[in-house]
Amino acid sequence: MLIKLLNGGEEVTIQSMFRSFINKLCFNNLSCGFHTSASLNEVQLLTRLRVVDNSEIGKRAMAEGKPPKVICVYNKKRIGYIGDRVMVAIKGQKKKGILVGLKQTQKVKVPKFDSNNIVLIDDNGTPLGTRIHVPIPTILRTILKERTHAKGADYTKLLAIATKFV
Amino acid sequence: MALAIRKSTFSVLATARCIVPREFRSLSSLPETNEDVAQDVAKRSTGRRIRFQNPALEYRHVYPEFLPDPNPKWRNTLREKMERADMLKRRSQIDIPEFYVGSILAVVISDPHAQGKTNRFVGICIERKGCGLRAEFTLRNVVDHQGVEIRYDLYDPTIQSIQIIRLEKRLDDKLFYLRDALPEYSTFSFDMDPEILPEGTPVPVNPVQVKLKPKPWLERWERQELKGVANIEEHLKENDRVRRELRKTPWEKYDLMKQYRKTIPAEDQNEIWGEVHNQLNQLKLSRKKMFKKRPVTTPKTQLA
């Protein structure tokens, strides 16, 4: 194979091969000391989210290019998964919301979205908007039903304003 | 008489031995390149006999999940055999069609969370991976301007049907760059009509080149030598080009050992395909019968 290469006059490729090989030997240990694995895209403190309902505050925040930031995820791990309740800082206010779509790799048959989506709710679980313009994962039905208790907040109202399920 | 027969069988074996090593290099389970296609086409045109002698040439692309993972740590012949039997059993229950990365599929699953208890999703297959019963594929679509991807297990018992809407290949093995491409390249309506290819035609390759959105990107696409991306150079800076040159590994295509470790050897493949060949053929025939039956059932005219 090498002989073929030499005969073919591909000296340039060999040179570049050699150069990059040397670079790999020398620079990998020196300059690239940090870990470069793929990001997990977890929703955690200070993650920027996208408001997908048509609530006034959410629409204005998204239009201004100041998407809300997570300031608390209400579970023990403090990492948000689908259907989790989060508190966000949006236009100088504190609002609660429910995660309705994540960028993170999901389980089989659960959709993975291109953005981290959130629907704003108030303390009783009533959504601030009247429509959700993006598809909602069907698994959210079961998750939100489980989270709803008879005398606590009713999160299933969110499902009623969804336009499409995937 | 007996001697003659023995002799003839011996000669057949010898010729087979001669053929096998020559075909060895093209027997990878990886998606085929253009040269590969040309070779296959040439072989098909030379005669039927060769194709029947070595079904691996045809099957390794159509049923890639029947080949085990080449990593010797994970090989277990007994488990692989049982998995293959289970896969064939599942295939006799549900029609799992031939599809490739780049094909557009419609998958119906029974979903306990959905209102009608079934859930249909249409999308372009951007990835196919896994071996045996763990084989999975990912569909991508843009619904209401929102990119959605769903991963399915191919042998999931909750899958009710897999329908091919458009059978085609793309220029790359994985289409993750669609996540960073303009949304129109991964937008497909849910009520698309299935396009039926005439029988016997090779699977068409769609040469469409997508346009990427400006940076930031999810991956460094410029380093991956993608063929299906049109405007990658526009978005690069000088530094990106320098880094790409430094990171290039042009020797890897000559690394025979690496190629060998990534693939299942021809002898093993022949054994596997010999084992499942009959049943796969039967399934194919029954599917053809179903296909022929389909046009006969014309919609009933409603009486006023």
UniProtKB/TrEMBL annotation, chain A:
SUPFAM superfamilies, A to Z: Ribosomal protein L14
Locations listed in the record: Mitochondrion
Chief location bin: mitochondrion
GO terms for MF: structural constituent of ribosome
Top-level lineage group: Eukaryota
Keywords from the named record: Mitochondrion, Ribonucleoprotein, Ribosomal protein, Transit peptide
Gene Ontology cellular component annotations, sorted alphabetically: mitochondrial inner membrane; ribonucleoprotein complex; ribosome
Coiled-coil residue windows: none
One protein family per Pfam: Ribosomal_L14
InterPro entries, alphabetized: Ribosomal_uL14, Ribosomal_uL14_sf
Name of the featured protein: Large ribosomal subunit protein uL14m
Organism: Papilio xuthus (Asian swallowtail butterfly)
TrEMBL record, chain B:
Highest taxon of the lineage: Eukaryota
Protein name: Large ribosomal subunit protein bL19m
PANTHER family: LARGE RIBOSOMAL SUBUNIT PROTEIN BL19M, RIBOSOMAL PROTEIN L19
GO molecular function: structural constituent of ribosome
Family label: Belongs to the bacterial ribosomal protein bL19 family.
InterPro entries per the UniProt record, alphabetical: Ribosomal_bL19, Ribosomal_bL19_sf, Translation_prot_SH3-like_sf
GO terms under cellular component: mitochondrial large ribosomal subunit
Alphabetically ordered keywords of this record: Mitochondrion, Ribonucleoprotein, Ribosomal protein, Transit peptide
Pfam families: Ribosomal_L19 (PF01245)
Gene Ontology BP term (one): translation
Principal place of residence: mitochondrion
Subcellular localization(s) per the UniProt record: Mitochondrion
